[in-house]
Design goal:
Length: about 425
């Protein structure tokens, strides 16, 4: 029900943005005759509807044919509507101002002796709005060209009173949502990412799901690259919702299971230890830290839940500090908080929707209306959740605001 409401709200916002965008462009330019005005309106809406039709077609058929091209087809109308959403605010302010006027007369009149009418208030506001609209448009264009592989390292210090002394300063590096299918056979971006990962010299490296978009074969051109990640401890990984290939029309259940087994084998070929509702204990002297890995669990009904947290937790025994890898952050409130000895949960999944505002003092993305925990650090009591916005991209070949992330979390005693 909540997701349906969010969808309806976004649809309404898109419609309003398109209408106001049309009004802004129409007002900003001068048309000498009614025929020119009608011609502009027809051309504008035909182009707009055509771009949306191509984008929707690309989204619905992206699993066949040229997925990259279809991703770009979807980016174009989304980038334009993002610009139009910004356009709304000054135009809405202008409309509210008009409602307060007692007389519906023009803002200005021609200066004496002038043959060119001055810029009216409406024209000025419309051009200002169009200028502001260029900000998200240019940001999304940059996100397509550069941002989608502009890897960034985020460092977070976490303090716990129960952290064993031997794990003081222990560094955990998290990557998530590689979506290797989006890179095709191009290994260069992930080679850069691997070099950055190795440069951090973390004590423990984990990958929190969605290695592929749909098929186990997608990661195979990148196995040699990902095998280059260096760690003295085992590198732990889990499965995300896309790894189960639930979005593919399989001819048989056996074929789907064979794809999953091939993906499990590919994790092993990379050199990662895939945790399937399991726990592994790391020891330093007499101290212990348990790494728990649960299969995908979600509070959202459109995502299948496969994991068994009770089984996973039981396998961790009485370890004094417990780190849980769980792909979907909605699992934290759904189940994880019911296990108070799970100190830290690492998740991914949301991508920060690959678009938004990401400032030290302010974060916003449309995904926050579906996920209360969607990017960065969250705390409740002693328990903490960190949501990594992902290393890869899916569907839309773009990242603006929420760049691909490598997270280094340093554990400290409180």
């Amino acid at each position: 029900m909540r997701n349906r409401f969010v969808f309806q709200l976004l649809l309404l916002a898109i419609i309003v943005a398109e209408v106001y965008g049309f009004m802004a462009v129409r007002t900003a330019f001068t048309f000498n005759t009614p025929a020119e005005r009608r011609g502009f309106a027809i051309s504008y809406w035909l182009l707009t509807l055509g771009l949306w039709a191509l984008g929707i077609w690309g989204a619905m058929t992206r699993r066949s044919g040229n997925a990259t091209l279809k991703g770009y087809l979807l980016v174009v109308p989304l980038a334009l509507v993002a610009a139009k959403l910004v356009v709304i605010f000054p135009l809405l302010l202008e409309d509210l101002t008009r409602l307060g006027r007692w007389a519906a007369r023009g803002f200005s009149s021609p200066a004496p002796g002038s043959t060119t009418p001055p810029l009216t208030r409406s024209e000025f506001i419309s051009r200002l709005a169009l200028g502001l609209g260029l900000v998200p448009l240019l940001a999304m264009l940059w996100g397509m060209v550069k941002g989608k592989t502009d890897y960034t390292v985020r460092r977070v210090v976490l303090r716990y009173p129960n952290l064993p002394a031997s794990f003081e300063g222990f560094k955990i590096l998290q990557i998530s949502d590689l979506h290797t299918g989006s890179f095709g056979d191009n290994t260069e971006p992930l080679q850069r990412a691997v070099a950055m990962i190795n440069a951090q010299k973390a004590d423990l490296i984990v990958m929190t799901g969605d290695l592929v978009n749909d098929l186990a074969t997608e990661v195979e051109p990148h196995i040699a690259t990902l095998a280059g990640i260096r760690s003295e401890l085992p590198i732990f990984s889990i499965l995300g919702n896309h790894d189960y290939s639930d979005y593919v029309q399989w001819g048989s259940l056996a074929a789907k299971r064979a794809n999953l087994q091939r993906l499990v084998n590919n994790h092993a070929k990379i050199g990662w230890r895939l945790l399937l509702d399991e726990s592994h204990t790391i020891r330093r002297g007499d101290d212990e830290l348990a790494v728990l890995g649960v299969q995908n669990c979600s509070s959202h009904p459109q995502f299948h839940s496969y994991g068994n947290l009770a089984k996973t937790h039981a396998a961790s025994g009485n370890a004094p500090f417990k780190l849980l890898l769980s792909h979907d952050p909605s699992h934290w409130e759904q189940q994880v908080l019911g296990y108070p000895d799970i100190d830290l949960t690492l998740s991914g999944h949301t991508h920060g929707m690959q678009f938004g505002i990401n400032l030290p003092f302010f974060k916003w993305s449309p995904v926050q209306y579906s996920y209360p925990q969607w990017a960065g650090l969250y705390e409740q009591g002693r328990q903490k959740l960190y949501v990594n916005v992902g290393l890869g991209y899916l569907g839309i070949p773009m990242r603006a605001g929420f760049l691909p992330e490598i997270t280094v979390l340093e554990l400290r005693r409180a």
